[in-house]
């Protein structure tokens, strides 16, 4: 066993050197920070699973800097997929296609498909352009915990597991990419995320949506209790306030309006102007913040309007509040 203390900075040359040496580097994207390694180097990829304590049946997304580079790793790119990514890459959408043999089994957990995306962040795009290989990168959090949206979040949880944290500031979108499978006749959204279903459908027509993707074999990582912070988190709607003697032990994550009776400093409003994009951007840092406040025992939250990025927010809230028994 060895412990490394991550350096944090904006030096892509240094990040590149670590990646070429088979080490782990945390990278900023517009969605969340990723924990990256050379996707074509099994030994390097194995370090990702170890650092995150992630089960090997949960496959990784392969990141590249352009659509042209994707063809090295996948069989054929259907027209609809091409149309989608030509319009939205670099951006918060991942596509699932049949893989070529060059992609190691460890990356795809032995599946014959691979998830690929071009993230939209200038530092990471420059880094990817400078590399000879693609980057496999899950979100840079310990398995089952909330995804990081700032370099400091990565440092706090995985700082002794990565060689370098490329600091690209706060993630602009704040929830993970939308995953769209093109493995079958009709495109299917396997994970709601940073690109709204409405925007996808406006471009390529109707898609199927796995709303209850908790245990689908198609996306093995989508366990129900994903995105949970350490504390108990419950829905406001249905919560029994009569069993609470001290309201300062409650924290809330609300959409646009605070609850009465609970101290204001315990409450996070996701968007005062009821803007779903802003709410998505603030969701994960709100969970972290309240999880870390020692006086708060229970976090209460609520669903937001179920359209646009609200669907991805509600999906994360549903998982975070899922019964963990
Ligand atoms: O926004 C994002 O997508 C971020 C940034 C870093 O790019 N990445 C991310 O990765 O959220 P991760 O590993 O936390 O979530 C990827 C999800 C997992 O639930 C995994 O099961 C699914 O993608 N996935 C990856 N490859 C797959 C495959 N071949 N078939 C089905 N699901 C796959
Ligand atoms: Mg994740």
Number of domains: 2
Per CATH, the superfamily of the largest domain is DHBP synthase
Instruction: Could you tell me the CATH topology label of the largest domain.
Output: DHBP synthase
Shape: globular
Strand content: 15-25%
Distance between the termini: 33 Å
User: Number of DSSP helices?
Assistant: 10
Quaternary structure classification: single chain
Give start-end ranges of low-pLDDT stretches: 214-225
What's the story with the biggest beta sheet?
11 strands, mixed
Reported CATH architecture of the largest domain: Alpha-Beta Complex
* Class by SSE composition: alpha/beta
CATH level 1 class label of the largest domain: Alpha Beta
> Roughly how much helix do the residues carry, as a percent range?
25-40%
The H/E string reads: EHEEHEHHEHEHEHEEEHEEEEHEH
